Amino acid sequence: MKFVVDEMLGRSARWLRLLGCEVKYFKASDDKYLEIAEKEDRILLTRDLELFHRAKSRGLEAFYVEGEDEAEKLANISRRFNIKLEINTLVSRCPKCNSIIKRVGKVVVLNNVPKRAFEHYDEFWLCLGCGKIYWQGGHWKKINETLARAQELLKTKMS
Ligand SMILES: [Zn+2]
Question: How far is the CA of 29 from the centre of ligand 1 (A)?
Answer without folding.
Answer: 24
